[in-house]
Specification:
Blueprint: H1 2-38, E1 41-50, H2 54-67, E2 72-75, E3 79-82, E4 85-86, H3 93-98, E5 103-112, E6 118-127, H4 139-142, H5 145-155, E7 167-171, H6 178-186, H7 192-198, E8 212-216
Antiparallel strand pairs: 1-6, 2-3, 3-5, 4-5, 5-6, 7-8
Helix pairs in contact: 2-5, 6-7
């Protein structure tokens, strides 16, 4: 009788240990899943330059989001935050048990890089999406966002801020800034300030190779006239 009681006690002990281990494993899995669910994970950030003033680039980005049916909220300092969207990634057993729905959203900032150029920065934030799958939700891959911004920019180019007449358009040479251009076409590099003002530029280096720059006629140096021969 004592032998049977001892064996039963051992089986009961092993059974108790097994149940406790199983419950502990479920708790750890539940805690880990809940922790991953409750904390948003910042993913890969992306940047894209566009030759538009910051306000125009901001509006183009909004139009691109609307074209993809992405709802968003407008924030301060040319920022946008899209509403959470359900992800199409598969969820694990524990996520199914607690009703976790993987989702993602984008935080976007448009940053000026001069008076005529801007940079669109996009960060994707996720909840319940494995780290190995976050790259699949980048805006450039998920919605080709930057490509759509460029398409809109090509359709609606910004109006020219230079006068339609009274000057000449010059193409910048490689490695040439406004000071070098002013020296070449006006004879004095000090004229770069007026050229920058006429072209809505903030500094002599705020240009790109082969960019077209408008120079007023009254700044352009004249070729010396040939002396008339005496009759």
């Amino acid at each position: 009788m004592t032998t049977h009681s001892s064996a039963a006690a051992k089986w009961a002990l092993w059974l108790t240990v097994g149940v406790i281990s199983l419950l502990a494993g479920c708790y750890v899995g539940f805690w880990g899943t809940s922790e991953h669910w409750s904390t948003a994970d910042s993913a890969l950030g992306e940047e894209h330059e566009i030759n538009f003033p910051v306000h125009d680039a901001y509006l183009l980005t909004q139009d691109a989001l609307r074209g993809d049916g992405i709802l968003f909220e407008v924030g301060p300092d040319n920022s946008l935050i899209t509403l959470w969207r359900n992800a199409d990634t598969k969820v694990g057993f524990m996520q199914n048990m607690i009703g976790v729905q993987p989702r993602y959203r984008y935080e976007i900032q448009v940053i000026p890089e001069g008076s005529q150029k801007s940079k669109v920065v996009v960060n994707v934030h996720t909840e319940g999406i494995p780290d190995s799958q976050i790259a699949d939700y980048k805006a450039s891959k998920r919605f080709a966002l930057f490509g759509e911004i460029d398409e809109l920019a090509a359709k609606y180019p910004p109006p020219s801020s230079t006068p339609a007449s009274g000057g000449v358009n010059f193409t910048l040479l490689p490695n040439e800034d406004l000071k070098a251009l002013a020296r070449r076409v006006t004879g004095s590099e000090d004229n770069w300030r007026q050229i920058a003002k006429d072209n809505s530029l903030g500094s002599p280096t705020e240009v790109t190779p082969f960019q077209s720059i408008w120079v007023a006629n009254n700044l352009i140096k004249r070729a010396p006239e040939k002396a008339h021969s005496a009759e």
